[in-house]
Known about the structure:
Region (Disordered): 1-22, 40-61
Distance between the termini: 160 Å
Organism: Oncorhynchus kisutch
Order of helices and strands: HHEHHHHHHHHEHHH
Helix content: over 70%
InterPro entries: PPP1R21, PPP1R21_C, PPP1R21_N, PPP1R21_six_helix
Domain Protein phosphatase 1 regulatory subunit 21 N-terminal: 2-72
Number of helices: 13
Number of strands: 2
Largest sheet: 2 strands, antiparallel
Radius of gyration: 53 Å
Main location: other
Strand order of the largest sheet: 1-2
Amino acid sequence: MKEKETHKQSLRKVEQEMDSLSFRNQQLAKRVELLQEELATSQAKGQKSKNKGDSPSQQGLQQTQVVFDEDLQKKIQENERLHIQFYEADEQHRQQESQLKVQLEELERDHEQHQAIVDGLTSKYMDTIERLQSVQARLEVKAQTLERESNECRVQTEECQQQLRKCQSELNRQVKQSSCVIQEKVPFNDTNVAGQALGFVQDIVVALLNFHSYTEQRVHIYPLDSSIEPISPLNQKFSQYLHENAAYVRPLEEGLVQLHQSITEDTVTVLETVGKLKDFAEHFTSYTHFLQKILPYQLKSLEEECRAPLCTSSLISKNQELQSGMKRITSVFDKLHRYIILLALPSELYHPTGLTYSSAVFTQLAACLHSLHDAIKEMSKHYSQKAGLEQQLPTVTQKLCTTNECLLASLGMLTNSTDKIATFFSNNLDFFTSSTGYGPRGGVGVLNPLQAESMLGNKKKASDYMQAIRKPRAESVPYREALLNRRVLTSSTESRQGLTQQVVASQEKIARLEQEKEHWLLETQLGRVRLEKESQRIQDLETQLSSALEGGGGSPVARHGSDDTIGLVDLCTRQDALVRDEESREQLIKTHYMARVGELTTQLQVSDSKAVNFHAECRALAKRLALAEKSRETLTEEVKLANQNITRLQDELATTKRSYKEQLSMMSDHLCSMNETLSKQREEIDILKLSGKVQNKVPLNTLW
């Protein structure tokens, strides 16, 4: 293709030269015509002057004519030379054009052949990849099913253990009530409550990590794409701080895990004895300082988005609402960390009169958690509206849309997590705000660690005594439950073992086939090299034989000597060939394995990039699935409420119908009784009328 471009450039140059020569030729032709006209005019004037006789002016005209003739002869010669050059350049151009056409046809044929080979290999390997991907998907589904079953079994086991621990703790509590002189009250926390709080905090940590990471990714995409042009120094610094978010967010989870591990049934759990709460408070303080550090950069970054050329007034208003939301969230986190610090320093919570402020601190902490949930929910709503407005911009990219979706998913997860932990604190507020779990006799003062240790010793002695006087009962499980658990465990174990054996067999088969492929590829290359060496050696021997026959064909002795020489040369040649063959074999093996290592490195890099992309897509799909599940749960609850309302309305309607029927029956009875009364009254009236008529007739008869 480069040669074709070079030939094209040379052809353009020749065409330009031809155009200039043709233009020059036209000028010369016009000049010749003018000279011929001037010659004709001068000849006509000369003929006229001959009739008048010779004169001095005639001689000047003759000299001018001679000069014109010489100039005309030169122009004619130059025109012929230019015509010859033009013809030669035209012929050369045609030859080059025919050669380039032939080369172009050959290159096109080669390209078609290579493309056909590439298409065949692509279809072949794509089929293989699709088949392997389908097998991998089936295996992943089976593995997920087995993992889910094992998790269910583990959950059931943990529930049984928790019930056992509850029974044991209840027994220990009863023992302490009967044998301890220390007044026992409700503990500050136990394993179940701490475990629930740990789960909620872990969800919040994951949501915060995702939110900060996707915010950093958005800074590199909008308003300037870092892959096309450098972003502003402000956003660079903001991205650098956001990249350090894991160093501040992860310790929150680790601190609460340590706090949960320190809370056991063998310890007295009150504010004065929980030392790990102070470490958690320090980690929360560090994260609050991190939020305060990145807040100005967040506000300035939003202001920079407002200054973008395509930023509309509605987007500017949404950015301002996001700025106020971020300020509110930072202030709420600041309040939370102050209350947590107060809880970590229980000596500050006691008044000299003996009263405690811990209940007020827990109440304010629950209120702050609700405020945090409201602030994050409001910011999520504003961000959703902003993402919808950004999708309407003409310059929006798919990368920005995907990042916005991930940000909204992380905000949704953070909203749900804060709602859960706020509800959890509100529901257990009576438990948290109750008085100190243990205290000295009389309930005055606080429990120090030495008193807690003494109380634990008494508790242990009482527990040992109760275990000594009671006969241990053998732990048993109901027969039906044990049989069901055995069937589940047996089926899951067999299916997992079968899948594991299939996977191992498939991996071994693939490895064996790869080894055989490498072996035969190497053998093919070695055979090709040996064939080339043998062909070269045969050619060398034929050349030596022909030269020996030409040099010693005169006598038998010479031929005999030449035969010895040929044998010696053949032996030396074979030895050299063997040495070269070994060296070439080593070099070929080295080259082959280096090429194979490079190829595997490239495949590994491609696989890593695909795996990263697939992992990101899986995370996005998982988040979408979680959101869909949550929306499904919400809709299910709404449907349940609607069904309950329908049932209630149907009951009310049935009750109303029944009451109306009863009223109608009562009215009917009343109407019947009224009709009977009316008929009786009419009969009485008729009787009275008849009796009145009879009384009026009696005196007349008497008179007659």
